[in-house]
Amino acid sequence: VAPARPGGTGPAMLRLAPALLARLARPWVPVLRRGAAAGGEEERFVFPEYEPELREAAIAAAAAVPRRESGRERRERRERRERPPVAAVGRPDPSVPPSGVSCSGCGAELQCRDGAAPGFVPAEKYRSLSEGPVGLRGAVCQRCWLLAHHGRALRLRLPPEQHREVVSAALRRPPRHGRGPLLLYILDLLELPDPVLPQLQGLLGPDVPAAGLLVVGNKVDLLPADSPGHLGRLRQQLAAACAQAGLRGTPLVDVRLVSAKTGFGLEGLISRLQRSWKCAGDVYLLGATNSGKSTLFNSLLLSDYCKSRAPDVVDRATVSPWPGTTLNLLKFPIINPTCDRIFRRQERLKEEAAKTEDQLSSEEKKYLNQLKKQGYLVGEVGRTFQQQKSSPVVDFDPDMLSYSIDEDPRHSPKKNEEREEFTYNEVKDARWCFDTPGIVKENCVLNFLTEKEVKLVLPTNAIIPRTFILKPGMVLFLAALGRVDYLQGEKPAWFSVVASNLLPVHISTLSNADALYEKYGGQEFLKVPMGGEERMKEFPPLVPQDITLKGIGATEAVADIKLSSAGWVAVTAHAEEKLLLRAYTPKGTALVVREPPLLPYISTIRGARIPGTAAYRTKKPPSQVENLKTTGRR
């Protein structure tokens, strides 16, 4: 981190200061530069904080121009300080018994007795819904409403053990249809090795063994392709993680790579389930918090895996970056994959695979381009079996025309719209797909963050790797959530950061690192945590762990240093080069050295060295679309 230069704050600098400060007010968002890299295969992105002329000018301008805090900034600072998850709004009524109806978003039982308990609906809203034509069916609790419409998390008195108890109780039910369930375990690839997977055996009862385990590696769309065949390598690493988890008694059916958000790999997953599992028993979606279970549940609900009428009857699950959104079981009925249905589905897939991007409609192209901006791997989930909806019948009311010129028209009362429900015959022998509450990860940095900080830390768009070349005596900061010191080594080494694009990365020296953290922790410079000195007082201190590595080549990383759930740093060093590093994470969080690394060639996804800095210019590899015929154009 370069200090502000003395002098150089003349009138020209003062005139430029507002523009520079405005640009650097959000310096962590990569900016697309027009003019792709050679061959047009990669887009070049710029993180402005690594441009020395912009950074030094902004620092000098900020030092030269005293700046008063605006009213908006004061309000935001006050909100950050005062804004943990919000409390319930509306009055409870302890005299009203629980409803026995589940929230369609999270599965909790709807109630108006306790605002701090799951499933709370304000008493006045609860009564108005109860008196309606369909009652509370299809209603959502206040927590789901706030998450879906305002992105706010409601403070709940819910111990982490309760999630585990709900899942364990569901898995220990007596087997239906003569056999145990299929476990569809959703694993966040960014979290390998998954901390919850080894605990899966403890959730199962000895009397009700699972019929099989299918592990799904989710969020593959966020990871750039560091080399040809990277998906096969990721799948091998996922299978190895399953073997290391020590699961016994539950046969591993398959491992798959998908993106529940962009649809990549989902059609293949559905085909695999219908071929191997058919409709033999129930299916449970399991996994840690924030692994994407509810997003996958919603995608399967709009696919060939559920009954054709299910999307009209079953509400979609609430999806939020806040950990532990789902509080109880949600479900939809699985369609029976008969030979005729499988044939019709395969015909649809063949027809769609023969299309080119140019043959898509304007709306399909727009949606596809939107997904390309969000992930490197994009797919489409279609539906072969859809319930044909009958055209609405228009009732003719002659009384609507029988009023005089002096009268207002008399509107006939509208018929109550009845909510669609399954018939008895549709579900009497149905097999169900259940979405379960996420198992809370222990020793996770997300447990110490506010809702606003969680949104910055969890990546939602394609991750753009940032590579730096460091000499011994240099330090890398990932926000204020992690730090890697290069203590000893003969030669410079490459450190590639794979984390949310919204988290800043800063390079310092060993002599200045502690002072930098003390000065900028809680400030915009390090971004997360946010809230100033008061926030840092309650945030756990960084604790060190020494790491020794041995390089294997200038283009291949030797290991990943995983800084809890904040991201990781891939370390690349010359062959046989010994490195002594010291990594820091907040006290009470897990620091993992992952060998082999998840993306060993990640340091090659970079542009030219930025003069005067340790940073390389960044690049974003192109997105790939599944199940579309390529046109040969780049």
From TrEMBL:
Pfam families in UniProt: MMR_HSR1, YqeH-like_C
Keywords, ordered alphabetically: Coiled coil
Composition skew (Low complexity), residue ranges: 89-100
Domain G: 283-333
Coiled coil regions in record: 339-366
Top-level lineage group: Eukaryota
Bias (Basic and acidic residues): 66-84
Segments forming domain NOA1/YqeH-like C-terminal: 495-595
Keyword Magnesium in record: no
GO molecular function: GTP binding
Protein name as it appears in the record: NOA1 protein
